[in-house]
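Hi support team,

I submitted a single chain yesterday and got back a structure, but I'm not sure I'm reading the token output correctly. Could someone confirm the output below corresponds to the sequence I sent? I've pasted both exactly as they appear in my results page.

Thanks,
R.
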Amino acid sequence: MERIRYKVLVCDSFAEKGIEKLSSIFDVTYSPKITSQELLSTIHDYDVIIVRGRTKITKEVIEKGENLKIVGRAGIGLDNIDLRSAESRGIKVFNTPESSTNAVAELTIGLMIDLARGISRGDAGMKQGRWLKDELMGSELKGRTLGVVGMGRIGTRVAKMAKTFGMKVLVSDIIELDKGLLEDLGAKEVPLDDLLSSSDFVTLHVTLTDETHHMINEQILGKMKKGAYIINTSRGTVIDERALTKALKNGWIKGAALDVFEVEPPGPSELVELPNVIATPHIGAQTKESQELAAMLLVDKIAGALLS
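Hi R., thanks for writing in. Yes, this is the structure output for that exact sequence:
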């Protein structure tokens, strides 16, 4: 008997190698700019839908996907997928959290170096014909303290990288951490308040939940070490942007580097325009290597579920 040829809709940008591998197994429609209305009118034809962060898999999409068996997310976060609706329909949801670990960790370290040395400010000044040498007295990472909030894959990778710079590493998480790992990293686990008051740099690597929504608020920012920096490459709503703007304007902390925002793209933003803020457009996983790995891993997971 001939095997069923499942139909797959790829809604967002997807690595070419992944499309090639998918197409060798399934009937694939690649529509990276599909609108929400177009999706609703066509989803009934497909067994599998693949997204990244742009396309929202809402309850309505799932209800109209009468043949839908799998939702695949090429990346980490699942906050653009209605997981409860998918579960109620018996639809499997796969993602690839392992694919972007190194890419996001490297960006985090890059942003930390930029904050410490004023690289972006110096570049902008040069382009404006301004020589800001006297204003850009930076600091070295060696000997400084990095506080890592959230010790999953990315947080652990950042801590390992920071160790090679000769940084002291403090970590905090809601789950019990492996003592052997902490020993290997030369890291010390401390309560969040202690981490905030002792760290020269604080980097956030937590998932978005009800508990982590606005976990960095005015009260928390007030506990940070004066002259410290905060880096967020996790999810935008982990930080209360109004509170962060106030903290930066009032000098509670020295600066911030943000790759994620409460609304993306943020549009006109007082926070983004502050001179002591480095802002990037959610590029944490935007490397060729990360995108290819995400695509290939996701194809393998989907094929394993449907063809095994």
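A quick pointer for reading it: The chain has two domains: 7-97+287-307, 101-279. Let us know if anything else looks off.

Best,
Support desk
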